[in-house]
Design brief:
The chain has about 300 residues and is of the alpha/beta class. It contains eight helices and 17 strands. Helix 3 links the parallel strand 3 and strand 4.
Length: about 300
């Protein structure tokens, strides 16, 4: 009886908290101003995948132009994985690395506060850039009305998460140098505006989510964001003709959900890293992936 009572009140409190948070956010967003500067902050979430993170960072360095800062919030489960990240830090001295030992939520809030005034792009470490991006092209995007996505493009007709084909939005049309659609009138990946895989957000929005949501890691952070999804389905979606990034779910390091994934274990990648191999990100250039997530075989090369 006591357990049922505790469960009942816990459920009531969670619903009240959810209702209060949504109501508060509804008012909060009314006062958000457009970020008119051309500063961007990339925040990358990484765990036990130095070799895949190296691929992402190298592809950013090669393909992305503009005024941006790269931040990595990382976690390691073994000493060997920790060593691989220390080696990565020596290679990318201009990247800010933050160990989430103080707690993922606290570190994310701290990192975002250091990004004040910048437009925010979240990434996970199994993403790679495959096409060029000039961030100045995004300066004109009205973030209060639209969510720009680097992962969407006209090449996408399959949803890996649902394991099924997906249709392009019926209202998809050319809008200047971008393509535009309504998130709420589309399906599957085209109907998922609040993603931490390369979607462009206002700093104030991102900070609100980081401070006020309940989460322990990147997946639960993104899941928590979905309580505001109904508001963002009313916004327009924007993307380039072809997607700029692709996510290769060839393995899984998180334990918060049971998403589909490949079976190339991160410890196998670690062994390759220690033998001096790296992923050839240039081999992925121009890839016409069918889904935002797509398993494919990396080309490995010896690192000089």
């Amino acid at each position: 009886m006591l357990k049922k009572t505790i469960w009942f009140f816990d459920r009531v409190l969670n619903r009240l908290h959810r209702y209060f948070l949504i109501s508060y956010y509804f008012i909060y967003v009314l006062f958000i101003k457009e970020d008119e500067n051309g500063n961007y902050s990339f925040i990358i979430f990484s765990k036990d995948r130095a070799i895949q993170l190296e691929c992402l960072l190298s592809s950013i360095q090669y393909y992305v132009k503009g005024n941006y800062v790269v931040n990595v919030i990382y976690n390691t489960s073994t000493v060997d994985h920790e060593i691989s990240y220390k080696e990565l830090m020596q290679q990318f001295v201009n990247v800010n690395f933050y160990d989430d030992g103080i707690g993922f939520k606290k570190q994310l809030v701290t990192t975002l506060k250091k990004s004040k005034g910048a437009k925010i792009l979240f990434f996970v470490d199994d993403i790679v850039f495959k096409n060029s991006l000039n961030l100045n092209d995004l300066n004109s995007v009205a973030i209060k009305k639209n969510i720009f996505s680097l992962r969407m493009g006209l090449n996408l007709n399959y949803c890996y998460v649902a394991q099924m084909d997906q249709k392009l939005p019926l209202d998809l049309k050319r809008s200047g140098e971008f393509y535009q659609w309504n998130w709420g009138k589309a399906e599957l990946d085209w109907n998922y505006p609040l993603s931490v895989d390369g979607h462009l957000f206002n700093y104030q929005e991102a900070l609100f989510w980081a401070v006020n949501l309940k989460y322990k890691a990147p997946n639960s952070f993104e899941s928590g964001m979905q309580i505001f999804r109904f508001m963002y389905l009313k916004k327009g979606g924007l993307c380039f003709q072809n997607s700029i990034i692709v996510n290769n779910p060839c393995n899984k390091v998180q334990t918060e959900n049971d998403n589909f994934h490949g079976d190339f274990h991160q410890d196998t990648f670690l062994a390759l890293w220690r033998d001096g191999y790296r992923i050839d990100y240039k081999n992925i250039t121009g890839m016409l992936n069918r889904g935002v997530h797509e398993e494919f075989e990396y080309k490995m090369v010896k690192f000089n």
